[in-house]
C-alpha cells in the first residue's frame, strides 16, 4: 500500500517537468512562526489547509481536514476530536487527571490546547500544522507540534455573504459574514454560523436517532484600528457553543446503541484577544493579550445499555464538568534594517510570555463519591531567536526558550500538591538557499513536556488493604518531565515556472522519559469496572519518517496536490502496569503511512469538479492494549459552480461509505451476556455524508 500511495505523488512530480501553466501558485505565509514566514522558506515541516480547500470539503471542524496533513492523527472518544497526534506523539483522552498537552492548539492567538473541540472552521482563512517540537515558539504545550487556526481578517472593501446548506442525517448549516470599513482608520468583520446534525447513531432503547447529535454555534467578531502608518491594533471576540450528544459505543460494535442515559459532549468558550503591532526606529514590537473562559461537560452511559438489560448487568453513569479560565500575555521585539546585529547580517527576536490557567473539575460517578479538584498553573517564559547570514546563501537559525512552570493542585480527597519545573527548548538550523526557487535545511530542535503527580493514584493508596494493589499504585504516584529532540532534513523547491511546489522532510525524534497514559482496572460490585487513570514514563522511544507534499498547477483550469507521510515508531524500553513488555512495539496513534491526494478542475463558465482520496495504515489505539484501527481509504468529492455573486456546491465525504474506527478499547469487558469477558469495542468514524451548500455575495 505504501508503494500505491507513492504512485500519484511520483507521477505528479515527473509530469510537472513537462507541464507549463500561464499562472503561478500563490505564496502562502505561515503566521505561527516568530515572524510571518513564507511556507517555502520555513525551516519547519509545515502543512497549510487554506479556506478554498476547507470549502471544497464542506468541512465544519478540524477533524474533517486533518487527514490532509501528513503524519497527523486524531483520537475519538468524544463527539468531536479534541486530542491530536503529530508524528505519533500526542494525547488520546482526559478523564479525572489534569492534562499537559503535547500538541498546541491556537485559535486566533488564544491557547485552546487540550480543548480543541471548539475548532470550528466557518470563515477560517487557513489552518497551519507545524510538525516537530516548537520549543522556541510555544513551549511545553507543543512537544510534538502546533495547530494554528486563523480566521479571516477585516477587509478594506465592503464584503457581505450569506450561506445555507443541508445534507443527510438531518444536517443543516446557516451562516453570514459582514466585513468592511467603519471609517478610514477602522475596519470590522462579523461572522456567525449555526451547524446542526442528528449524528450517525441510532438508539434502539430511546427510539431516537439524535443521541449523538451535533449542535454548534460560532460567532467571530473582529475590529482593526489603523492608528497610524506604523501602529495597528486588532481586537477579536470569539464565542463558540458546542452542545453535542455523546452516545458512541455499543456492545455489538454497530451504529445502534442501547444506552438509557445518553451522554453529552458540550463546551461553551468565550475568548477575547488584543493584538498590537508597532513600528519604531530600531525595532518592531508586537503584543498579545488574551482571555478565554470555557465550561465543558463530558458524560457517558458507562454500561452502554439500560436497567434490566441482563440480570447480571449493572447500570452506571459518569460525568465530568470542567471550568477553565486562561489569561496570556506576550510581547516580542523584532529587529528591522536599522537594528540587525553583526554588521547587518543577523535578524533577532526576543520576547516574554505568561500563561495562567485555572481549571476546576467536578466529577459525578455512580460507583464513587462526588469528586472535585482545582488545578492552577502559571507559566513564565523568555525566548529569543537569531537568524544570521553566514554568507550569501547560508543562514544559521538559533533559538532558545526557558520556561518556569508552577502548579497548584488540590482536591476533596485531601490531596494537595504544588509541583514546579524549569524547562528549556530550542532550535538550531542551517538553511542553504540553492537558488531563488530552492532551499534546503538541516535542523535540530528540542521540546519538552512538564512533570506532574497522579492525584487519583495518591487518593486511592489508602482506600485499599490489598498489599499487591498498594505496591502497584506506589510505582506510579508521580511522573517526570519528558523531552524530545528532533533531527530534521528538508528540501523546499519551486519549479516549472512556479507551477509546482514540493516540500520534503526527513526526521528522527528521540524521546526521553516518554510520558504514556495507563489505567488500573478495579472491579466493582455488580460487574462494573472502575478506571484509575494515570500517567507514567517509558524509558525511551524513537519516531522517524518522512513527509512529502506537492502542489501542481497543471493548467489554468487544473490544480492537483498529493501529500504523503511515512512513520516508524517504537518503545525502546517500556514495561506497562500489567507487566507486559512493550519494548520494540509501535507507539499508539502512529500509522506507518498516511496519504491524501486530489485535484480540482474548473470549466469555462465557473463550473468545477473536485475529487480527493485519503487514507492511513492500521495503528494501535493505546499503549495499554493491542487493539488496532484497521487501515482505511476514503473518497471525497464535490461539484459546483461560481457565477457572479452566487456559489452552489454538491459535496460528499467518504463516498464509498467505508466503516473505520477513531477510538477503540481492548483491556476490559462490558457485556454481561458473556460474563464480562475482555473483548474489543470501537467508535466509528464518519460514514458517507453528503449535502448541498449555496452562497450569495453582495
Q: Helix count, per DSSP?
A: 4
Largest sheet, in brief, is: 22 strands, antiparallel, barrel
CATH level-4 homologous superfamily: TonB-dependent receptor, beta-barrel domain
Q: What is the rounded Rg?
A: 25 Å
What is the CATH level 1 assignment? Answer: Mainly Beta
How many individual β-strands?
Answer: 41
Helix content: under 10%
Low-confidence stretches: 1-21
Shape: globular
CATH fold annotation: Maltoporin, Chain A
CATH architecture: Beta Barrel
In the residues, how many domains can be counted? 1
Q: How far is the first residue's CA from the last residue's CA?
A: 47 Å
Mean pLDDT: 91
Residue fraction in strands: over 45%
Structural class: mainly beta
Describe the structure.
With 698 residues, the chain is mainly β. The chain has a single domain, classed as Maltoporin, Chain A (Beta Barrel). Helix content is 5%, strand content 56%. It is globular. Residues 1-21 have low confidence and may be disordered.
List keywords for this structure.
5-stranded mixed sheet, disordered N terminus, mainly beta, 22-stranded antiparallel β-barrel, globular, Maltoporin, Chain A, 698 residues
Amino acid at each position: 500500500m505504501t508503494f500505491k500511495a507513492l504512485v500519484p505523488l511520483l507521477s505528479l512530480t515527473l509530469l510537472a517537468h513537462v507541464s507549463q501553466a500561464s499562472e503561478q501558485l500563490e505564496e502562502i505565509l505561515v503566521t505561527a512562526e516568530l515572524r510571518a514566514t513564507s511556507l517555502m522558506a520555513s525551516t519547519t515541516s509545515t502543512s497549510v489547509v487554506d479556506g478554498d480547500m476547507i470549502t471544497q470539503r464542506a468541512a465544519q471542524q478540524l477533524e474533517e481536514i486533518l487527514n490532509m496533513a501528513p503524519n497527523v492523527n486524531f483520537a475519538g472518544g468524544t463527539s468531536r476530536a479534541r486530542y491530536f497526534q503529530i508524528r505519533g506523539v500526542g494525547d488520546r483522552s482526559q478523564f479525572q487527571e489534569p492534562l499537559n498537552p503535547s500538541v498546541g492548539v491556537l485559535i486566533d492567538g488564544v491557547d485552546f490546547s487540550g480543548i480543541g473541540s471548539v475548532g470550528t472552521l466557518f470563515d477560517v482563512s487557513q489552518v497551519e500544522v507545524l510538525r516537530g517540537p516548537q520549543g522556541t515558539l510555544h513551549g511545553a504545550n507543543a512537544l510534538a507540534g502546533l495547530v494554528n487556526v486563523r480566521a479571516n481578517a477585516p477587509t478594506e472593501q465592503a464584503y457581505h455573504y450569506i450561506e445555507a446548506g443541508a445534507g443527510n442525517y438531518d444536517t443543516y448549516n446557516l451562516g453570514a459574514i459582514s466585513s468592511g470599513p467603519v471609517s478610514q482608520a477602522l475596519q470590522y468583520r462579523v461572522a456567525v454560523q449555526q451547524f446542526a446534525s442528528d449524528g450517525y447513531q441510532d438508539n434502539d432503547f430511546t427510539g431516537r436517532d439524535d443521541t449523538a447529535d451535533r449542535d454548534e454555534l460560532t460567532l467571530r467578531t473582529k475590529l482593526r484600528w489603523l492608528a497610524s502608518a506604523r501602529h495597528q491594533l486588532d481586537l477579536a471576540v470569539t464565542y463558540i457553543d458546542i452542545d453535542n450528544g455523546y452516545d458512541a459505543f455499543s456492545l455489538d460494535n454497530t451504529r445502534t446503541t442501547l444506552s438509557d442515559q445518553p451522554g453529552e459532549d458540550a463546551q461553551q468558550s468565550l475568548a477575547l484577544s488584543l493584538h498590537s503591532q508597532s513600528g519604531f526606529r530600531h525595532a518592531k514590537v508586537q503584543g498579545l493579550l488574551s482571555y478565554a473562559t470555557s465550561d465543558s461537560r463530558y458524560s457517558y452511559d458507562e454500561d452502554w445499555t439500560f436497567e434490566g438489560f441482563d440480570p447480571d448487568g449493572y447500570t452506571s453513569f459518569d460525568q465530568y464538568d470542567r471550568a477553565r479560565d486562561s489569561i496570556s500575555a506576550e510581547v516580542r521585539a523584532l529587529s528591522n534594517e536599522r537594528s540587525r546585529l553583526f554588521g547587518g547580517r543577523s535578524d533577532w527576536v526576543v520576547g516574554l510570555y505568561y500563561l495562567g490557567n485555572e481549571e476546576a473539575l467536578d466529577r459525578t460517578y455512580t460507583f464513587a463519591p462526588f469528586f472535585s479538584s482545582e488545578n492552577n498553573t502559571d507559566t513564565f517564559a523568555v525566548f529569543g531567536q537569531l537568524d544570521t547570514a553566514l554568507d550569501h546563501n547560508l543562514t544559521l537559525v538559533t533559538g532558545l526558550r526557558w520556561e518556569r512552570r508552577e502548579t497548584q493542585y488540590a482536591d476533596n480527597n485531601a490531596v494537595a500538591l504544588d509541583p514546579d519545573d524549569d524547562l528549556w527548548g530550542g532550535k538550531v538550523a542551517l538553511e542553504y538557499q540553492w537558488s531563488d526557487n530552492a532551499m534546503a535545511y538541516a535542523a535540530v530542535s528540542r521540546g519538552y513536556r512538564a512533570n506532574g503527580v497522579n492525584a487519583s493514584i495518591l487518593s486511592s493508596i489508602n482506600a485499599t488493604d490489598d498489599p499487591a494493589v498498594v505496591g502497584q499504585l506506589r510505582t506510579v504516584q508521580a511522573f517526570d518531565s519528558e523531552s524530545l529532540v528532533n533531527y530534521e532534513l528538508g528540501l523546499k523547491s519551486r519549479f516549472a515556472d512556479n507551477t509546482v511546489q514540493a516540500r520534503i522532510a526527513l526526521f528522527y525524534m528521540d524521546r526521553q522519559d516518554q510520558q504514556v497514559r495507563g489505567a488500573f482496572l478495579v472491579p466493582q460490585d455488580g460487574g462494573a469496572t472502575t478506571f484509575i487513570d494515570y500517567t507514567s514514563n517509558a524509558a525511551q522511544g524513537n519516531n522517524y519518517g518522512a513527509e512529502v507534499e506537492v502542489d501542481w498547477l497543471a493548467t489554468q483550469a487544473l490544480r492537483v496536490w498529493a501529500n504523503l507521510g511515512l512513520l516508524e515508531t517504537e518503545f525502546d524500553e517500556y514495561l506497562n502496569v500489567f507487566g507486559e513488555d512493550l519494548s520494540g512495539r509501535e507507539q499508539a496513534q502512529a500509522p506507518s503511512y498516511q496519504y491524501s491526494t486530489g485535484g480540482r478542475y474548473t470549466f469555462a463558465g465557473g463550473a468545477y469538479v473536485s475529487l480527493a482520496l485519503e487514507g492511513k495504515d492500521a495503528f494501535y489505539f493505546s499503549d495499554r492494549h493491542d487493539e488496532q484501527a484497521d487501515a482505511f481509504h476514503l473518497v471525497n468529492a464535490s461539484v459546483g459552480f461560481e457565477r457572479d455573486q452566487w456559489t452552489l456546491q454538491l459535496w460528499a465525504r467518504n463516498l464509498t461509505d467505508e466503516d473505520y474506527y477513531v477510538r477503540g478499547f481492548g483491556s476490559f469487558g462490558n457485556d454481561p451476556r458473556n460474563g464480562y469477558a475482555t473483548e474489543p469495542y470501537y467508535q466509528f468514524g464518519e460514514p458517507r455524508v453528503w449535502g448541498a451548500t449555496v452562497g450569495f455575495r453582495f
